[in-house]
Design goal:
mainly alpha, 0% strand
């Protein structure tokens, strides 16, 4: 009984075409061999035999031959790694479309391209709809800006908070990357806060260098812009995010009395509630109960525990009373109406305030409230100063 011996191809004729055939003959050879390896009925031995020939065709001196081969094998999922890398090393016009489409690219191939390939090839890998988590992690931590940009625009890639932190640390000065990050609704709020501070710092530097306004005015304008940006971040945040962001602000010494007063003057009481709760070391629900309590002792207790200066007691108290009044009346208040009611409360209530204290509270409104309310407050303050 004879053993079954697998009979392969007679590849001598193939090598003859490869060595002596003209461009058209080699193109035809490339197409035939591509069809052969694409056929599921092709024996493993035959695939093995034609691989060296395909590899030689992939580096053929004639670009038309290489282009014909690549066009025929791009959708082949079981290409030998040597052929894959040979095609990827070709000129961009051939290599990049192949790299974007070939199903033969596995995780190992991707990592090899990311480690030694140029930025154009890295970016193609980053944009693939099958980019692996290993490749994505490598790009986030190590790849250049063009590759990172391609990954961030890849809709199948889900960046988490840590990924965003790493990217911001690496590319916080690259406007395009920062813009993409800021467009993400799930961007960690501490990044938004840091960016607001950086923008304000650059604004201050620009004003100083170009002498647009006096130094004191520039400092005040920049501080206002920074606080407004931070306040907007807190206002737009979900409750849990706001709590985390408030904790971060406190750790960075950015949870300032001015920020709390600005929030109160504009009616952003969710921010005030979270800030007072954190500063007083109590839960937000408990802070809310005490802030809006009709008992003077309730608000005074939470305010005292917060450590905020007594200089801003009046305006925060007035803002809390406006909220309580509006709740009793069942009336929603926009920012302007809220500010008007604060002014009314400061002018007509709080016997504990002397004229100087009342003027100071009105001054806060004149700086931090909405534009129309600020104008009213400035007139009131001037009248009070003249009357004094």
């Amino acid at each position: 009984m004879s053993d079954n011996v697998e009979v392969g191809l007679d590849i001598s004729v193939l090598n003859t075409v490869l060595d002596t055939g003209d461009c058209e003959a080699r193109k035809e050879l490339a197409l035939q061999l591509a069809a052969l390896i694409a056929d599921v009925e092709t024996a493993p031995l035959e695939r093995q035999q034609v691989t060296p020939i395909l590899l030689k065709l992939s580096v053929d001196d004639d670009v038309d031959v290489r282009r014909a081969l690549v066009g025929a094998v791009t959708q082949e999922g079981s290409l030998h790694s040597d052929i894959v890398f040979s095609i990827i090393a070709d000129e961009d016009a051939i290599a990049l479309p192949f790299l974007a489409q070939t199903p033969a690219l596995n995780s190992w191939h991707m990592m090899a391209v990311l480690r030694v390939g140029d930025e154009a090839r890295q970016a193609v890998v980053a944009a693939r709809d099958d980019v692996t988590s290993e490749a994505a992690n490598y790009i986030i931590k190590s790849s250049p800006v063009g590759t990172v940009r391609a990954l961030m625009k890849n809709t199948i890639v889900q960046l988490n908070a840590q990924d965003c932190q790493i990217l911001y640390q690496r590319f916080g000065q690259v406007a395009e990357i920062v813009e993409i990050l800021l467009a993400r609704p799930d961007l960690p709020l501490d990044i938004r806060i840091i960016q607001a501070k950086r923008v304000a710092s650059r604004m201050r530097q620009l004003m100083a260098e170009r002498g647009w306004v006096a130094a004191n005015d520039a400092t005040e304008l920049v501080a206002d812009a920074e606080e407004n940006s931070i306040l907007r971040v807190l206002v737009e945040a979900e409750s849990n995010e706001r709590i985390s962001a408030t904790r971060y602000l406190a750790q960075q010494n950015m949870l300032t009395p001015a920020l709390v007063v600005r929030a109160a003057a504009t009616g952003q009481m969710r921010v005030v509630e979270t800030a007072l709760a954190h500063l007083a070391g109590v839960s937000t629900p408990r802070a809310v109960d005490q802030m809006y309590s009709r008992s003077a002792l309730g608000f005074k207790s939470i305010f005292k525990r917060s450590g905020l200066p007594m200089a801003c007691f009046g305006i925060v108290k007035a803002a809390c009373d406006v909220v309580a009044d509006a709740k009793d009346e069942g009336l929603p208040l926009d920012t302007e109406e809220f500010g008007r009611r604060i002014l009314e409360a400061l002018m007509t209530r709080y016997e504990f305030m002397n004229a100087n204290e009342r003027t100071k509270q009105i001054e806060y409104v004149s700086r931090y409230a909405s534009e129309r309310v600020r104008k009213i407050a400035k007139r009131l303050k001037a009248d009070m100063v003249r009357a004094a």
